[in-house]
Amino acid sequence: LHKVFALGMLAYDLSSFRYHPCLDHWASRVGTMPALVVRARRNASGQTSALHCIFLDRDGKLAHLVNPRLLVGPLDGAIAVLAGAGSGRSILCETFETALSLVAKRVCGQILYGLKRENMRRVELPRHHECICVFDAKRGVDLSAKAICAELRARAIHARPALASELTKADLYGMSTSCEEAGF
């Protein structure tokens, strides 16, 4: 977790993150390893419904395993809130790496990670809330991504798709260059 702090993330609420020094990698026979555990919730009440366990090597980097990321718990509809709240805009990310990189860049707004693509359509946000849905380059903004945004728009959420590699400063910071200037 010290690497998370090194990213300048002390200003954020890191209540969704936990560090476990010796979590059992239950999908293999490698034994215990350090892990970053991300708490996910199913609804606005904040109840934990799933965990995303990211196994690390001794240097704090992603462990060299066949599957260094394991999910446990009911995943349907689960979303992890990585940073921010109450700003009127959210950035909903398909991958954890994209979400964490946006947190490190101090992007304005609530940063959410969907655990799986299908969960992005089930996110609970207020009506007329602005939401940028960020998809990874592997699948890109395909018909599925467009359908997710259309479903959110049908619920009066102002959603639009974007590729992580194509986000602009206006996407990330609003019309200002920093969260402080934007009043967040």
Helix-strand blueprint:
Layout lengths: L1 H5 L10 E8 L7 E10 L6 E8 L13 E4 L7 E4 L5 E5 L2 H9 L5 E4 L16 E6 L7 H12 L3 E6 L5 H5 L5 H4 L2
Parallel strand pairs: 6-7, 6-8, 8-9
Antiparallel strand pairs: 1-2, 2-3, 3-4, 5-7
Main sheet: strand order: 5-7-6-8-9
Distance between the termini: 25 Å
Low-pLDDT residue spans: 1-11, 175-184
Average pLDDT confidence is 79
Chain oligomer state: single chain
- The proportion of residues forming helix, as a percent range, comes to 10-25%
Shape: globular
Q: Rg to the nearest angstrom?
A: 16 Å
Which range does the strand content fall in? 25-35%
Major sheet description: 5 strands, mixed
Q: Helical segment tally? A: 5
Please state the structural category. alpha/beta
Describe the structure.
The structure is a single chain. This protein has helices spanning 2-6, 96-104, 143-154, 169-173, 179-182; strands spanning 17-24, 32-41, 48-55, 69-72, 80-83, 89-93, 110-113, 130-135, 158-163. The strands form two sheets. Strands 5-7-6-8-9 form a five-stranded mixed sheet, sandwiched between helices. It has a four-stranded antiparallel sheet with strand order 1-2-3-4, with no helix packed on it. The radius of gyration is 16 Å and the shape is globular. Strand 8 (130-135), helix 3 (143-154) and strand 9 (158-163) form a beta-alpha-beta unit. Helix content is 19%, strand content 30%. It is of the alpha/beta class and 184 residues long. The model is unreliable at 1-11 and 175-184 (pLDDT under 50).
